[in-house]
Amino acid sequence: MEKINIIVNNKTYSVDKNITLLKFIETNMPNAKYNIVAARDVDGNIIELFTPIGNDLKIEWISVNSEDGLRILRHSASHIMATAVRRLFPNTKVAIGPSTEDGFYYDFDSPERFNEEDFEKIEKEMQKIIDTDIPFIKSYILRPNAIEKFKNQGEFYKVELLEEITDEKVSIYQTDDFIDLCKGLHVPSSSYIKAFKLLRVAGAYWRGDEKNKMLQRIYGTAFGDNKSLKEYLNKIQEAIERDHRKIGREMDLFGFYPEGPGFPFWKPNGMILYNTIVEYWKEIHTKNGYLEVKTPIILNEELWHRSGHWDNYRENMYFTEIDGAKYAVKPMNCPGGLLIYRDGIHSYKELPLKIAELGLVHRHEKSGVLHGLFRVRQFTQDDAHIYCTEEQVKDEVKNVIRLVKEIYDDFGFTDVNIELSTRPAKSIGSDEMWNLAENSLKQSLDELGISFKINPGDGAFYGPKIDFHIKDAIGRTWQCGTIQCDFSMPERFDISYIGQDGQRHRPVMLHRAILGSIERFIGILIEHYKGKFPLWLAPEQIRILPISEKNFEFSEKIKKMLQDFGFRVKIDKSEDKLGAKIKNARLNRVYFVGIIGDKEMESNSISIRKADKEENTIININDLVNFLNEIKKSKK
RNA sequence: GCCAGUGUAGCUCAAUGGUAGAGCAAUUCACUCGUAAUGAAUAGGUUGAGAGUUCGAUUCUCUCCACUGGCUCCA
After folding, report:
1. Which of A62, A138, A216, A394 lies 20 to 30 A from A516 at CA?
2. More confident residue, A167 or A297
3. Residues A64-102: pLDDT tens digits?
4. Which one from A511, A528, A559, A581 is the annotated catalytic residue?
5. pLDDT average, residue stretch A560-580
6. Is A9 left (phi over 0), alpha (psi -120 to 50) or beta?
7. Rg (Cα) of chain A, in Å, rounded?
8. Is this model's pTM higher than 0.90 or not?
């Protein structure tokens, strides 16, 4: 009998691996016939353990609502969904059905076109399966037998999977009449699914490859109790309410029109936000020793052959013609920047040379991927290229990391995850270059004591990179900043500096962006703040609400004064009552409203309040500018 | 690009094989007003575009465009 060692509560147990029935229960289910847990083995993998009650084995239970528990629960829910779908649509073939970060899906190949109206039917059938408490029965069979079995059933996706598995034996799970090739784990029976919901249907390629057949993927989620499901659905709702496309419209920030799909149009309010960010960005970069340049948007095609973009990035580029010669619209700023560097002789004394560019780039994104400001075809990168010696790389990378953190902090993002991506399959440059580059980045992070995740094969085609992911107010993460180490472009452009020895040397080039794309970053900011920006970013910082026409003149005086001090201020001279004026100010996400009535005029003051708060502060006009400046300075 | 869905007034949404309505917004008038919507009136649409079926299409069919959710990709 095959045994497996597992560690539970620091004790090692030898356990029979051939289990045919799996029970997975919570401690608060005393009537279960069997106790079974999912535990972690020595390598940290989840393995299963089976023991009848009465065995003295002490088990550390995992709750249904723990990360592992939910994964098991959701994976089981996907099987139940597949069972239901196959009951309702018998001609449906199944592909794979894993759990995801917050739910599960199953990919189907079916003559039926599923749509969301089918969900009710499928959910009902799933509920039936859950109510009848059908067990998940696990068994192991020899791989050739499994291939035979699934072939007979016409489940060719399973056969394809099986043909790649090298194990002698594979496990299969049976739920009702639905038999699925599956490693597990699963809950013991369907009634463990206490709350589930199907969410959407989408197309998905078999094995994620667009050359393969498009399958129909049904997404859903499941929880151990109804309350958690409700909380999850509320979170989805919250994300919908934060949608930057909706808030952007409400605040009149930007627009997209059919005349330019994927090309954002910035409206006056949006430009205020945009320019405020740019001004801040320029200031902090100047302070950190960066010089600024601007390079052309359209450049000769020859340049892109030299840079390697033509070979590696062509399908994302736009091309044009000038006087019969071929030109390309830049998808990246570096080649242009390199021309500037190459224009002159550089001494080692100039290095590190930090050249920043807010570069407008165009990339042809497939029509189906465009998404508000998050995914556009034209955007401005807050780019910079740092030319330095190999010895300087580590320190420069560290400097960039510090700057990245400072900038994110100023925008209210304090939670940052860092990832290191290594050489991809499609790449240029020698092995030595790649090793040197990857090691330099790794060491910089290590020396700063920063923990990071490694993404093998995720680097740019010209070098490895460090990516920065910020976490927003509702816990979503967004990749924004990046540092890319490039030994390749300097060679292609044959750039050099004169070293202490009077000889020419090849500098290293670091590409880096902090906000990533200003357009996208604004989208993230909108969703993070739900449009309620801190004072320094708010397109409209203060709106003065006169109670009646008698107060207009005094209001104008205050407006003029605030404008002279650089504040963005408007007066609501509409015929609305005060309540309506406040409502409108809130809707427009104005930061402060200042109320001017006879009372205020008499005392030469203004009743000021944050537009979304109840409390008023009465401030003398002479103190107003100081009051606002204090809040603006703090950035947050 | 692929799969599915959607497209009606500035916004949110109704309705119908016999050329369309509501609320909010807008405009005008009255009210001169104190903390999340004062009242009245007016105006606003070749129902995304094109073609087909039909006596008649906004409705049914097809093509295209755009958008939404995914796949893939990515800042």
Report:
1. A394
2. A297
3. 666 777 888 898 899 999 999 988 888 888 898 888 888
4. A511
5. 94
6. left
7. 30
8. no
Question: How long is the CA A107 to C1' B1 vector, in angstroms?
Answer: 20
- For residue A268, the SS3 value is helix
Determine the Cα–Cα distance for residues A460 and A526; give it in Å rounded to an integer.
Answer: 29
CA to C1' distance (Å), from A579 to B25:
17
What is the DSSP track for A465-488?
EEEEEEE-TTS-EEEEEEEEEESS
Scanning A193-267, the segments in alpha helix (DSSP H) are: 226-241, 244-250
Give bridge partners of residue A170 from the DSSP assignment: A141
Distance CA A28, CA A7 (A): 23
Residue A494 Ramachandran class (φ > 0 left, ψ -120 to 50 alpha, else beta): left
What are the residues facing A610 on neighbouring strands?
A592
- Tell me what pLDDT residue A380 has: 97
State the nucleotide closest to A520 in CA–C1' terms. B75
Over residues A174-182, mean pLDDT: 81
Ranking A55-69, A268-282, A346-360, A595-609 by mean pLDDT, the lowest is A55-69
Confidence at residue A12, expressed as pLDDT on a 0 to 100 scale: 55
- Of the residues A334, A388, A480, A485, which is catalytic? A334
Count of alpha carbons within 13 Å of A298, Cβ hemisphere only? 8
Q: Protein A258 CA to nucleic acid B65 C1', in Å? A: 8
| A363 classed as catalytic | yes
Q: How far is CA A70 from the centre of its chain?
A: 22
Per the annotation, the verdict on A485 as an active-site residue is: no
Q: Which residues contact A11 (CB under 8 A, 6 or more apart)?
A: A58
Residue A7: predicted pLDDT: 44
- From residue A362, give the alpha-carbon distance in Å to each of A28, A253, A375: 58, 21, 12
- CA A518 to C1' B16 (Å) is 47
Decide: A106 and A96 in contact? Cβ < 8 Å.
yes
- Name the residue with higher pLDDT: A35 or A410: A410
Query: Residue A37: what are its φ and ψ, rounded to 5°?
Result: -130, 160
Contact A52, A34 (CB under 8 A): yes
Task: Mark the nucleotides of strand B covered by protein, meaning any atom under 7 Å from a CB.
Answer: 1-5, 11, 26, 29-39, 65-75
What length does chain A have?
A: 636
* Long-range interactions of A274-283: CB distance < 8 A, separation 24+: A274/A518, A274/A522, A276/A536, A276/A537, A277/A515, A277/A518, A277/A521, A277/A522, A277/A537, A278/A358, A278/A518, A280/A410, A280/A536, A281/A358, A281/A382, A281/A407, A281/A514, A281/A515
Query: In whole angstroms, what is the distance from residue A107 CA to residue A208 CA?
Result: 11
Neighbour-count burial of A149, counting CB atoms closer than 10 A to its CB (0-12 exposed, 13-18 middle, 19+ buried): middle
Distance between CA atoms of A218 and A361, rounded to whole angstroms? 36
Nucleotide nearest to A465 (CA to C1'): B75
Which residue of the set A79, A330, A362, A363 is catalytic?
A: A363
Closest CA to A106 of A187, A171, A196: A196
Q: Are A441 and A485 contacting, i.e. CB atoms less than 8 angstroms apart?
A: yes
Tell the burial category of A616 from Cβ atoms under 10 Å away from its Cβ (0-12, 13-18, 19+).
middle
Among candidate residues A176, A180, A382, A383, the one labeled active-site is: A383
Assess: ipTM above 0.85: yes
